[in-house]
Amino acid sequence: MDSLIQELKEEIIQSLNLEDMKPEDIDANAPLFGEGLGLDSIDALELIVLMERNYGIKLNNANEGKEIFKSIQVMADYISKNRTK
Amino acid sequence: MSIFIDKAAQISIQQPLSNEWFTNPMQPTERLCKFSLPNFKQYLSPATSRRMGTALKCALSSALSCVPEEKRSNLDGILTGTGLGSIENTENFLLAMLQGEEGLSPSNFMQSTHNTIGSQIAIAFKCHGYNITYAHRGTSFDSALLNAIIKFKLKEFSSALVNGVDEMTEKYFQLFDQIGYWKDRSVTTDDIRNASSNGSFAGENSVSLLLTDQKSDDTLCEICDTELFYCPTDQRLKEYIQKLCKENDIHQIDAIVIGNNGDDENDKEYKRLCGFIEPSATPIIYKHLFGESFTMSGIGVYVGATCLKEGYVPAHLTMNNCQLNQLKSVLVLNHFKKLDYSITLLKSC
């Protein structure tokens, strides 16, 4: 799980161009949207693309995304249970 | 009514957001010269700029540098000329499609349109005024400028920001290379003065001009008028310039900004134009310092305006390598493949 969390942090930094941010700066339990990383709706689209491209997980329900993208820890739990890649 | 270029800013292959090119220019050495980048963090927060391509960041920075904060939301219009738009984002998006990626990045797609630049400036300025983008190849900037001037004449504008923005990617550079756009080596000032071969060298530019109907202490010059022509006769151009000079009480044009870029065919046309328009006027060159792009004519207007503000043309900007003093009027000429032409008249104020 720890390696998946680290991988996710690196992927998010790269995909979302979070300049000046390092994996160790991101708290795995902090909210991704609003407070915490402060991501927005366009980032949510990028995360959906990332989930599909890297882990073969298709999110069709927007409400589902709200739960899954709560934090990196929650994302990692979901990916480990549902990944096809 | 009068229209003034009140402020101007550029990011190009020269020193960014600076007039240092006027006295101490950098000498391009490559066939493809990329933007000389400013410290974006002075103008854009990392959160704002993280999804933006280079051209967009440069456009926003030059616009923010050009327009004082208190005037941004009150602008009547933001008009942008760009030949290639956000081509870096466009390429990223198309490349991902070609590679058969299942999920395409929304950011590249969203920022791949030409009018992303003007709209992002409007968002940054909180400006809800007129917003338009022209993508007319070599007269993209000129079209935006003409639109702005028409709006001033109609008394619909009292201030406007006009931008000319183009970046050049490696892939696009190679495509142009195949059709003879570029020389097989970089261009020197001597190549510009004595063009004898085909092709130029590529530059990148983001130029922003703040136009107002009120003169201020910072005003660079007055912009009398601009006009676009498609395949005009010499007579048509001559008559237009004579009328323009008469309306603006100009008896003699002191200098003509020309787009000589080292390409033999291109430069011969400027020589011919200068010959019948005003043979005694001093030709001002600038593409030997800034390179070639679809909207480089915006830099031409900026160079002419800066010379008028300073009151002279330094030797390194003239064809005869002699400084021209007591500058009062400047004509800016632009042609694209001897099809599209634009003429802009500037005068000191």
Give a quick precis of the structure:
The complex is a heterodimer of chains A (85) and B (349). Chain A has 85 residues and is mainly alpha-helical.
Question: What's the topology here?
Answer:
The complex is a heterodimer of chains A (85) and B (349).
Chain A: H1 2-15, H2 41-55, H3 62-68, H4 72-82
Helix pairs in contact in A: 1-4
Chain B: E1 4-11, H1 20-23, H2 46-49, H3 54-66, H4 69-72, E2 77-81, H5 87-98, H6 106-110, H7 116-125, E3 130-134, H8 140-153, E4 159-166, H9 170-178, H10 189-193, E5 205-212, E6 221-230, H11 234-247, E7 255-258, H12 264-277, E8 282-285, H13 287-290, H14 296-310, E9 329-336, E10 340-347
Parallel strand pairs in B: 2-3, 2-4, 7-8, 7-9
Antiparallel strand pairs in B: 1-5, 1-6, 4-5, 6-10, 9-10
Helix pairs in contact in B: 3-7
Number of domains of chain A: 1
Average predicted local confidence, pLDDT of chain A: 90
Instruction: Report how far the terminal alpha carbons of chain B are from each other.
Output: 14 Å
Straight-line distance between termini of chain A: 16 Å
Helix and strand composition category of chain A: mainly alpha
Q: Can you identify the CATH superfamily of the largest domain in chain B?
A: Thiolase/Chalcone synthase
Beta-strand share of residues of chain B: 15-25%
Q: Which percent bin holds the helix content of chain A?
A: 55-70%
- Whole-angstrom Rg of chain A: 12 Å
Q: Please give the largest β-sheet of chain A.
A: none
Query: Which percent band covers the strand fraction of chain A?
Result: under 5%
The helix/strand order of chain B is: EHHHHEHHHEHEHHEEHEHEHHEE
The CATH superfamily of chain A appears as: ACP-like
Structural Rg of chain B: 19 Å
Q: Globular, elongated, flat, extended or rod-shaped: what is the shape of chain A?
A: globular
CATH architecture of the largest domain in chain B: 3-Layer(aba) Sandwich
Secondary structure tally, helices of chain A: 4
Gross morphology of chain B is globular
Quickly name the level 1 CATH class of the largest domain in chain B.
Answer: Alpha Beta
